[in-house]
Amino acid sequence: MASVMRSVLSRGYATASTVKAPIQLNSLTGTYATSTYLAALKKSPKDLESLAKDVEAFDKKIKEDAKVAAFIQNPTLSASERSSALSSVLPSGSSPILLNLLTVLSENGRLSSAPKVFADFNSLISAYRGELEVIVTSAEPLDNKALNRLDKALKDTEVAKGKTLKVVNKVNPSVIGGLLVDFGDRTIDLSASSKVSRFNAALSQGI
């Protein structure tokens, strides 16, 4: 993993000793994400925020553009083919640090891991901003009214004090009859109606 970090950082943006990540991610994708985070923050907080926007935009493009998704996931492309195509699939004006990340992933045969790297990068950004990411998994997308009720309930807990909540709704059809709520190091299972009372009791006690 150390070689991964050196590979990203050696492109002229940062060294691991000059800045620190707000949280430690021990996975391989987390190492790529951390290296990218450090590279941007070394330049300036403004560059980090700009990179975060570009990562969000490109991650969305992968999800919504079938051709881009196919390119990212295509295992038959050679390293040179992937490298030459990267600039064309990135939105115009994207951060060069994002291109560097994708280039390193491509060179290491891990371009298909980009969405997971982006997810880990977003975890770093949330920690940097003092946000607490709340993952709400439901069988169908929740409306704003339901998400706002959950946001209001969680703001009063001990875990959320001093933090800005970032509620993300993920859809999993296998979650029947309720929700799964992940925040901090805690998971609350509301997928069975009998557990709703336990959730309310936990909230009233500050979790």
Fraction of residues in helices? Answer: 40-55%
**Overall pLDDT:** 82
Main beta sheet:
4 strands, mixed
Radius of gyration of CA atoms, rounded to a whole number? 19 Å
Residues in β-strands, percent: 5-15%
* Sequence of secondary-structure elements: HHHHHHHEHEEEH
- In CATH terms, the superfamily of the largest domain is N-terminal domain of the delta subunit of the F1F0-ATP synthase
Q: Supply the number of structural domains.
A: 2
- Silhouette: globular
CATH architecture of the largest domain: Orthogonal Bundle
- List low-pLDDT spans: 12-16
How many beta-strand elements? 4
CATH fold type of the largest domain: Peroxidase, domain 1
Helix count, per DSSP?
9
- Lateral strand order in the biggest sheet: 2-1-3-4
What descriptors fit this protein?
hydrogen ion transport, Peroxidase, domain 1, alpha+beta, 9 helices, ATP synthase subunit 5, mitochondrial, ATPase_OSCP/dsu, about 210 residues, about 10% strand, transport
